[in-house]
Amino acid sequence: MKVLLIDPPWVVENKENLWRKVGSCLPSLGLAYIASVLEKAGHDVKIMDCTAEKIAVEDVSKKIKEYKDLDFIGLTATTSIINNALKIANICKKQFPNSKVVMGGVHPSVLPDEVLSYPFIDFVVVGEGEITMKKLAEGKNPEHILGLYYKKNGKIIHNQLRPLIKNLDEIPPPAYNLLPMDKYYPSVGNYKRLPAMSIFATRGCPGRCTFCHMAFGGVVRQRSARNIIEEIKLLQKKYGVKEISFYDDTFTLFKKVVREFCDIVAKEKIDITWSCFTRVDFVDEDLLKCMKKAGCHLILFGVESADEQILKNIKKNISLEQVKKIVRLARKIGIETRASFMFGNPGETEKTIKKTIKFAIELDPDEVQFNITTVYPGTEMYEWAKKNNYLTAKDWSNYNVSDCVMELPTVSNDILKKYYKLAHKKFYLRPKVILRRLSRIHTITQLMQEIKGALAVTNS
């Protein structure tokens, strides 16, 4: 079968969105994993990464003329880009009326009926897509494919969900050979060297935060340390990759695997620098030392708020003392930290926003990230906001962590916008921070990062 997989362009029109200005461009590993499974099964697969290749929605019609006789066209979509994905799906269906258009990703998995209501969508893959897409490409009867939703005689059919893949090592590496590898880069401040690439070492998250999807039912699975190492070696050998961004929700959840990974890196003298995301309650001093020795230079921690009651409201299940302790430990060991915060959680007031900004300044991580709370469909917080009639945004493109999508009774959206614009300036435009960042510039790459970041902050 001939299959085209499309990653729609990430376009955020709101010019106040600081993190799009200093944003990253990294591949959809979900699509790349599906592509590798399909290739291994003998199918002819192509990937079109619209963001990396700078293909706007209006340019897709011209671009897809390069492809002939497609059997399946698959698109992935988060909530913020679902509109772009649907527009592209419609274009594809018009140009390839005999092709089957398949939609997957977080948003279609959460709202499959909404997506299938469009006449140009034939199938929705709910959950992990590797095996489901493989079965579909093999020509199996849709009625017998787990994890597949489809239409039959005008009625939407929900097949039984597919069990999660237990052994992640069984999945072949992402199809990097189908990606424009020279066009990817992480966000400003997130890397030491280029080229860089993102990797997932796990799937799922152990947290129960009300603002997050339970994408894999709360079940977390890990790859083996050796499997991760082999992928890194592949990236080094074929593409010269020097930096890895681990995009797992909680990279250090399986501490034994992380320690084994770090030991292999040190023992085999693998020349790699890397960063990761995790929680303050899943690291300790010994693990941080091990990670530092293996090339870890940056960890992003989700803190969200400096108000203990708000942390309870969103079920974050961490304390501010834990945050202070771990950030200090990381600094002592020599690992930089980034702390992320959100304005607009349940219970937020102007007073708690000021408290969060003050805490961020006192905590003084190397990087901070302030967002406006986005209540994504499929989350507990979304249902809470919907039930209480707090939702205000009807366009999914506004669900982008910089627009206000709900109106809380405790704080106005004007206040949220005011502090969202102010917070980064208050943190970064301090003499202490400016001098610290200048002192760390040792290469042209680092200099360019700092210039780009500074322009984004001052122009926000």
Q: How is this fold's topology laid out?
A:
Layout: E1 2-7, H1 18-21, H2 29-40, E2 44-49, H3 60-63, E3 72-76, H4 82-95, E4 100-104, H5 106-110, H6 112-116, E5 123-125, H7 130-137, E6 148-152, E7 155-158, E8 196-199, E9 202-203, E10 221-222, H8 225-239, E11 243-246, H9 255-267, E12 273-278, H10 285-293, E13 296-304, H11 308-313, H12 320-333, E14 336-343, H13 350-363, E15 367-372, H14 380-387, H15 413-428, H16 431-439, H17 444-458
Parallel strand pairs: 1-2, 1-3, 3-4, 4-5, 8-11, 11-12, 12-13, 13-14, 14-15
Antiparallel strand pairs: 5-6, 6-7, 9-10
Helix pairs in contact: 2-7, 8-9, 9-10, 10-12, 13-15
- The class by helix and strand makeup works out as alpha/beta
| Number of alpha- plus pi-helical segments | 17
Q: Please identify the oligomeric state.
A: single chain
* Number of spatially distinct domains: 2
Widest sheet: strand ordering: 2-1-3-4-5-6-7
Question: Class of the largest domain, according to the CATH hierarchy?
Answer: Alpha Beta
Major sheet size, sense and barrel closure: 7 strands, mixed
By CATH's scheme, which homologous superfamily of the largest domain applies? tm_1862 like domain
Proportion of strand residues = 15-25%
**Can you count the beta strands?**
15
- Residue-averaged pLDDT: 92
3D shape? globular
Radius of gyration, in Å, reads: 22 Å
The end-to-end span amounts to 48 Å
